[in-house]
Amino acid sequence: MSAQRFRDKVIIVTGGGSGLGEDYCRGFVAEGGKVVCADIDESAAKRTVTSLQETGRKSIAVACDVTSTYDVERMVEEALHTYGRIDALVNNAGVIRRRSLVGTTDEDWDREINTDLKGPFVCARAVVPHMIDRGYGKIVNISSVAGIIGCISTAYSASKAGVNGLTRQWALELAPYGIRVNSVAPGYTATPINEKLRKSPAAKRIGETIPLGWGKPADITAAVLFLSAGESDYITGQTLAVDGGLTTTADMGPEYRNFDR
Ligand SMILES: NC(=O)c1ccc[n+]([C@@H]2O[C@H](COP(=O)([O-])OP(=O)(O)OC[C@H]3O[C@@H](n4cnc5c(N)ncnc54)[C@H](O)[C@@H]3O)[C@@H](O)[C@H]2O)c1
């Protein structure tokens, strides 16, 4: 039998209708958790939940735009009405627009910053009062290697670096209430968000540059579940890069890697 780290626990996963979020939902329910799968794309959230229910596991789909305080507050009410508690929040919903600095429009900036930076703030603000009342909670913010090194685009880098800042600030502020806050910074992981990039010639070069190559959703899910579970209760304020070594190494090419020559 698999571990049951989330038996009787309730976890909100934003952006749970696709890619990484869908994989986290699957991981949580496989270990006994009840999942609130929130996504701006209601049909995608329902698809995730339907596939989880086929395994006899508990989860609900909620239509929710994380940039809307109204939607997020309704989503939290629905979670509490259905399950009576919230143990963990995974701030995962995100968008990427690859644009040069000069090519970034005001609209690109607003959409990216609203979804990837304001979204986690709006969701945490709505969930934290309940966690304070219970004296316990876990928040996992999904950042990116782009919050650590320059590799994607202006607004995306700004939002993900901002998420790492929020993580440190909230860790300090919420520790007295038993709430732990950490970030996971995925590297290049095959999901719908980078489908176009993966079909381009750059995909192979990216894979060769990362010491352990492209990641799989399961690699990221393992870290998100760890930081959502009780076993990581003494860890807070950290950003854990799950990136195959991308942010800790400099690739100087195959000739340089021949260290014994
Ligand atoms: N895949 C990667 O390589 C990678 C790397 C680093 C970070 N990330 C981060 O991981 C997270 C998930 O990415 P993914 O690869 O699974 O992408 P994805 O496109 O497969 O999934 C993103 C989900 O977020 C939802 N969403 C978008 N805007 C929303 C909003 N305003 N409100 C609610 N839901 C919204 C989408 O409908 C979708 O279901 C994102 O925050 C992304 O920045 C991904």
Protein described:
The model has no long low-confidence stretch (mean pLDDT about 95). The protein is built from eight helices and seven strands, in the order E-H-E-H-E-H-E-H-E-H-E-H-H-H-E. A seven-stranded parallel beta sheet has the order 3-2-1-4-5-6-7, with helices on both faces. It starts with 9 loop residues before the first strand and ends in a 19-residue tail after the last strand. It has helices at about 20-30, 40-55, 70-85, 105-135, 155-175, 195-200, 200-210, 215-230, and strands at about 10-15, 35-40, 60-65, 90, 135-140, 180-185, 240. Helix content is about 45%, strand content about 15%. It has about 260 residues and is an alpha/beta fold. It has one domain: Rossmann fold, CATH 3.40.50.720. Nicotinamide-adenine-dinucleotide binds near residues 20, 144 and 193. Nicotinamide-adenine-dinucleotide binds near residues 18, 20, 39, 40 and 66.
Looking at CATH, the homologous superfamily is: NAD(P)-binding Rossmann-like Domain
Mean pLDDT: 96
Number of helices: 8
CATH-defined architecture:
3-Layer(aba) Sandwich
Instruction: Please provide the ordered H/E string of secondary-structure elements.
Output: EHEHEHEHEHEHHHE
- Which term fits the overall shape? globular
How many E-type strands? Answer: 7
CATH topology: Rossmann fold
Major β-sheet annotation: 7 strands, parallel
Label the structural class: alpha/beta
CATH class: Alpha Beta
Unreliable runs, pLDDT <50, ≥5 residues? none
Radius of gyration: 18 Å
Percentage of β-strand residues: 5-15%
Number of domains: 1
Q: Residue share in helices?
A: 40-55%
What is the CA-CA span between the terminal residues?
Answer: 48 Å
Q: Order of strands side by side in the largest beta sheet?
A: 3-2-1-4-5-6-7
Task: Name every ligand kind in the structure.
Answer: nicotinamide-adenine-dinucleotide
